[in-house]
Structure formats: C-alpha cells, structure tokens
Amino acid sequence: MDYSRKVRAAAVQISPVLFSRDGTTEKVLQAIANAAKEGAQIVVFPETFIPYYPYFSFVQPPVMMGKEHLRLYEEAVVVPSPVTEAVSQAARSHSIVVVLGINERDGGSLYNTQLIFDADGTLLLKRRKITPTYHERMVWGQGDGAGLKVVDSSVGRVGALACWEHYNPLARFALMAQQEQIHCAQFPGSLVGQIFADQIEVTIRHHALESGCFVINATGWLSPEQVTQITSDEKLQKALSGGCNTAIISPEGNHLCPPITDGEGMAIADLDFSLITKRKRMMDSIGHYARPDLLQAHLNAEPFAGFQIKGFERGLNGFPNYENFPSQDRGAEA
C-alpha cells in the first residue's frame, strides 16, 4: 500500500429535493462536478441522500406513516438503474471516487445502502446498513456482513459505515482489520439538535484515532421550508433541526478544514497519507498494539441470499408435498 500519496477529499453538506428521486439526483451530479472543479479526487454525500432520508419516520407514529413510506418506495433507487448509471458516468467523466447514500429498493423491501464508485465509474461496493436504528426499523430491512468490506480504489483503501453503525465497535473493527485508509461516514443531519452534532464530532474523531485513518463525514441539511413540508407541528419541527457536522478528520483526530454545521456547503481538505504511518507508529490497533492471543473477532461475510425452503418441494397448490420427506420426518403421518 502507498503511504506517500496525497489525496484531495470533499464532503458535501446538502439538502435533497424532497419527494423527488430525479431532482435529488440532479443535485448530486452537480455537486460531483463542483467537487471536481475544486480538484477533489473523492467526494462523499450524506446518508440515504437519494431520494431523501426518511425524516417522516422520526416524527410520525407508525399508524400515520403509511402514505409517506409508500411514497419513499416509489422514489427509491434500484441497483442498477438509470440513477446509478448517471452517477457512474459522472464519476468516470470527472475521474472522481463517489460515495453515495441511497434508499435502495429490492423487491418489496427498502434498505439503507451505501455505494462506492471508483474514478472510472466502476461500482466497487454496494453495502446495506447492518441494523437500522430505532425508528428506521419501520422503514428499512437489515444488511449483512458481506458489506463490511474495504475496497481498493484509485484513492486508496476505502470503507464506509452509516450513522450509528459507528457505535458497533466490531463493525468498525472489521474495516480497521482490512487496513482502511479512508473511512467514509454518512449521517442524516437536521435531526435531534446540537446533541447529535456533538455526538458525530466525538464519533468520527474517535474512529480516526483508533483506526489510524482519515475520516470523511457528510451530513444532510433541511431548510426551514423543508422542515415544514415534513411536519406542520411546531413542536416536532424542533426535532428536525441541528445535528449537522460535515467534516474531514486526520488519523491524529484533528480537523483538516473547518466543519460545516449549518446550511449547504462543501468541506475540502488534502489527505497526506504519511500521517497514517505517523499515527500507527504510536498505536496500530490491528498490528503491534493488538493482542490476537487474547481477543479475536469473527465476521460472517457471506451475503444473505434470501430465504430458501429445504427438505421438500411445494406442490402446485403451494402446500408442501410431504411425499418428499423421509418417513421419520413426517411425524404422525409416517
């Protein structure tokens, strides 16, 4: 691995076009072009940015959220699709690595999905958030261990986690153990208030220090008008404010540029990979500072392939054909 390189990174704080997959995609494509103009070689977008984070699920009770949930289904992104092809083309045209959060639709389920496109447009990774958080469990299904993967890209070894996955130390360790050089974090933003922004600050700086890698973090942002679109209840509107902290952190836990905590904007910084070695010389948590003789972790990296019915076939009427069972498995019918 090359620890002598320097990479220019961009983290985008941006608001979606609510209720519009195509509108939000256009904003992504424009932001990719803007990042490239700044010389960025990697650009990171917020959590489930296309079409938008399901803020409705945080402020509406389950019995009331059916309409909005169905609308999210209609605007969600299938992989592959014209949306992913457009982002791939933009990455290729601008020679830039793109890390994008989407609401992915796969049949009858939605997932919190992170996509990593290489600078030649290749989709290097499609991973799903392993455990949706709190209200999100009413919206998304669960991911699997196959997505806990670090990929080789034109800017180095890149990994990604979404939001409170960073509070799962074994998920983070799985990426650290694969020699992650650039970690891409994504949060929704405009949620919970200042306490959320403070938590993001602690979380991303700790991961940078513990893993000895760079962290590029992007959070979303809602305008006051958009908050009103989501809920007219002024008390609930307070829950859809603050919580923004778009930042780029060094392996030593320092900000490499001023963080963005309000409004739209782009954080840009140069990543000097020699800082990885400088940090790990002191503390390499997966090398000389590890104790594998005492502590080990097991990762099930097999992708979930869907439910399979084993041991019998179903007849034309949909009921099991018990004739395919050995007699000892047929119980009272044997």
TrEMBL record:
UniProt KW keywords: Hydrolase
Pfam families xrefs: CN_hydrolase (PF00795)
Highest taxon above the source species: Bacteria
E.C. no: 3.5.5.1
Residues covered by the CN hydrolase domain: 7-273
GO molecular function terms noted in the UniProt entry: nitrilase activity
InterPro entries per record: C-N_Hydrolase, C-N_Hydrolase_sf, Nitrilase, Nitrilase/CN_hydratase_CS, Nitrilases_CHs
Entry's family note: Belongs to the carbon-nitrogen hydrolase superfamily. Nitrilase family.
PANTHER family: CN HYDROLASE DOMAIN-CONTAINING PROTEIN (PTHR46044:SF1), NITRILASE (PTHR46044)
Name this protein carries in UniProt: Nitrilase
